[in-house]
Amino acid sequence: MSTHQDMSLVTATPPINVDQTFPEIEMSGDSSSSSSIVRATVVQACTIFYDTPATLDKAERLLAEAADNGSQLVVFPEAFIGGYPRGSSFELAIGARTAKGRDDFRKYLASAIDVPGPEVERLGEMARKYKVFLVMGVIEREGYTLYCSVLFFDSQGQFLGKHRKLMPTALERCIWGFGDGSTIPVFDTPIGKIGAAICWENRMPSLRTAMYAKGIEIYCAPTADARETWLASMTHIALEGGCFVLSSNQFCRRKDYPPPPEYTFSGSEESLTPDSVVCAGGSSIISPLGIVLAGPNYEGEALISADLDLGDIARAKFDFDVVGHYSRPEVFSLNIREHPRKAVSFTSEATKDETVKK
């Protein structure tokens, strides 16, 4: 398995000095009315599969490099901690499973992290150490169910919360659980209002509308989709929401995964060499005006950075405010159920007594 490689640093060239390092920003009021500049980085790099401690070490090296470049916000790809099981079928068929497939799941479960847990604490320590806002894609473990999640940390290292992927795609649904309305946060931070949607749930209009209604300004889109069509989706979201879109994907070669027979790319293993690209990245940063500020990068592992002029949010909303002056609430409405959906709830006698008193 390959280890950390030196990152290539790809920085946008908007009409400001891209060599300038910006201190941590203190704002008051609505950041969208400000003309502040925020330097953001999307990380394009591969998990060290089945080795979560080594992946955390790699994440810290990348975070340190981004911070050295003056980044205040760093976004990692979908499932960076825990790994995206690209190509694996877990030997699933309708009505049948295998001993190896069950053991593949056991190893994948072991690579996931508890939230909260020691890995979350370490990520918080990294954010504090390097004084950055951190958005990290993880595989979250709750009992024996896995979730594809995004964790948010502020620049003091505080864990702000998480988003669980609402709708896993295709075979992902056999491996990951489903998020609910209780984890669709948008966090109001000194560098802007930050939230995230993961991979193809970005195609869900209702989810996007919920985030727009919460005032999202920096829309993070960790993904596993490396196709060239992905950029069109990201550009549309930036224009539709009047927000910055930061899309981060892994860049992986076959050798970044364990070799066969331990790990097999179903249907394509025989055609792959160790250097075959199995995920080509395509990470990018888009402005609220639909301008591609950085990327897409299909060349290799990289740190892709841009300077975000938060004043562009107001400039874009002047044209189109999807949940404001361009909405038609007398025609369309959307109801979001934000309470957690639990399979089992327990009611004690004390709880019953309190309910009766009320």
UniProtKB/TrEMBL annotation:
It comes from Raphanus sativus (Radish). InterPro entries: C-N_Hydrolase, C-N_Hydrolase_sf, Nitrilase/CN_hydratase_CS, Nitrilases_CHs. Pfam families: CN_hydrolase. It catalyses: 3-cyano-L-alanine + 2 H2O = L-aspartate + NH4(+); L-asparagine = 3-cyano-L-alanine + H2O. Residues 38-310 form the CN hydrolase domain. GO terms for molecular function: 3-cyanoalanine hydratase activity; cyanoalanine nitrilase activity; indole-3-acetonitrile nitrilase activity; nitrile hydratase activity. This is Bifunctional nitrilase/nitrile hydratase NIT4. One of its GO terms (biological process) is detoxification of nitrogen compound. Gene3D superfamilies: Carbon-nitrogen hydrolase (3.60.110.10). Belongs to the carbon-nitrogen hydrolase superfamily. Nitrilase family. The active site is at 78 (proton acceptor). Keywords: Hydrolase.
